[in-house]
Every structure is written in C-alpha cells, then in structure tokens.
Amino acid sequence: LGFGQTISQPFVVARMIELLIAGRDLGKTLEIGAGCGYQAAILGMLSKQVFAVERIAPLLARARDNLRQIKLSHVRLKHADGNLGLPEAAPFDTIILAAASAAVPRSLLAQLAPGGRLVMPLGSAEQVISLIERTEKGFVESRFDAVRFVPLLPGVE
User: Is 8 an annotated catalytic residue?
Assistant: First the structure.
C-alpha cells in the first residue's frame, strides 16, 4: 500500500470476520486501520453501520475514493489514532484491528458494547488472531491462527 503499510491477505480478512460473526450479526462495527478500504468495503457489505479509522492521511484519501466508487456511503471514515478508537460513536458491537499490538488497547475495550466482540492480531514478534468477547462476567479471550501484521502505531500522519 505504500507508507510502510501492507494489505491483509483475503484469507486472513475472511477468518477474522468469520470469528466476529460466528452466529450473530456484526451490528455497529469499528475498523482500526482502514488502509485502502478493502476490509471496510467487505464489512460494509455485511453490516449496516461501519466506522473505520486510518492514521495515515493519504491512505485515508485512497480508502474514501475506493469506497465512493463502489457506493458504500454507510461506511464512515475518519483520520484518527486507532489506539484511541472512536469514542464519539461508541459503543460498538464489533471491533476489528488491521494492525498488531502486544496488548489490547484499553480504550477499545471500553468502547466494546456488552455482548460485543473484538478481533485483532495480538503479539509483537509472534502474533496470533485473538478474539475478545465482552460478557456479563468480564472479557473472555480466545486465540486462533498465527499471523503477521504491521504494528499498531500511535498518532496520525
């Protein structure tokens, strides 16, 4: 994609979305790391309300152009630090990250609705797809496939 970023493999995107859906609707969705808009487009076809944030302005512009061309006007994009999520639109039924972190950002857990699911690549040198579910008793984590993603970085460019 340029700017030191990569696009997720279609199989990995499908796997992460499969874990989010697993017997329910996606509901109100937040994507962290919109990149070129590929994953946001897929989410937009599966959900009525999608919010996506991207920290790199030229990539966000590309995502806007791509989503406009396929007429997905219900996918809202914002230039923002993904570590912070999108508190003004929270809570979210599903949150998906396209960048890895050694720990789940607490701000994203706070924006996850009761019964919600968050999926992300978790880890530094070794990463796995991690699913975090918000239950009545707290957060429950399940780990799945090994993956390799760019790191979740703070700030905006």
Answer: yes
